[in-house]
Amino acid sequence: MVLTPSGDYALFPIGDYPSSVGNASRLFFVFNNLGTPDAFSTALYVSPTVASGNSVRRTARLASTFDLNEVSPGDTVVSVGGPLVNPITARYDNVSMVHMEIFGGTITIVTPQGNVTWTAPKPGWNVTPGYFVIQSFADRALNATVFTIYGTDADSTAAGAYYFLTTIYPNIDRYRGIHYIVSLWQDTEPGADIPLPGASQGDTSGFSAGDSITIVFMR
User: Fold this and answer.
1) Could you tell me which residue, 35 or 86, shows the higher pLDDT?
2) Which residue, 21, 37, 63, 198, could crosslink 154 as a Cys pair with Cβ 3.0–4.6 Å?
3) Backbone φ and ψ of 41, nearest 5°
């Protein structure tokens, strides 16, 4: 089933995340393959946002094999990782007014407030700045809510997941009128809090909690 801009979805307030999860029978965490940075980001930073005592059934699914037919009306889906590695994220990024345009080694994040462009470093694992997007949707075709957290690269995705846990979730009421956030991540602290894909090639630093995160666009 292809999502189109013809009324199948609407932007959903990020601040309504707790009520969305609280009313769901199942909460799906969808991410790239096991052992990837996106999987670690989901486990460390996204899963803990489910309130203690919440009885919602939590289900983890690999993005490459996730079947949307599993989603029942009222369920919530959290998709972690960018459109190149996560087809669930791509489903919504492709039709959102906030989306990534990918051309070769550059990614432009398009928003109603302006655009930002990121160029992949060489070697590809040597990322020091990047951008992440957090946005949410009411999918009318599924009658479910979907939250997407993804970056221009794995480190930026981790930064977005961390920001969701440590800044948005504790202050969730402030985000009830917010539908998307685009932020800049900068690697300002040595080391990394998640495994580094390029460690065997000499990578020694990636996302960590002391890095810099700056909001670029939010509405």
Assistant:
1) 86
2) 37
3) -60, -40
Cβ atoms 193, 207 nearer than 8 A: yes
Q: Which two tokens stand for residue 147?
A: 């939250």
Q: What is the DSSP letter of 192?
A: -
Q: How many Å apart are CA 196 and CA 199, to the nearest integer?
A: 5
Pair 89, 38: CB distance under 8 Å = no
Whether 64 and 100 have beta carbons less than 8 Å apart is answered as: no
What CA–CA distance (Å, rounded) separates 203 from 196? Answer: 7
Stated as kind and residue range, the H or E segment containing 134 is: strand 129-139
Neighbouring-strand partners of residue 29: 60, 78
CATH class (in words) of the domain with range 9-218: alpha beta
Long-range Cβ contacts of 205-209 (<8 Å, 24+ apart) = 205/128, 206/37, 206/127, 206/154, 206/155, 206/158, 207/155, 207/156, 207/158, 207/159, 207/162, 209/162, 209/166
End-to-end CA distance of the chain: 28
- Residue-wise pLDDT tens digits, 97-138: 999 999 989 999 999 999 999 999 888 778 899 999 999 999
* pTM of this structure: 0.94
Query: 189 with 198: CB under 8 angstroms?
Result: no
CA distances from 52 to 48, 55, 56, 114 (A): 9, 9, 10, 38
Burial (CB count <10 Å: 0-12, 13-18, 19+), residue 58? middle
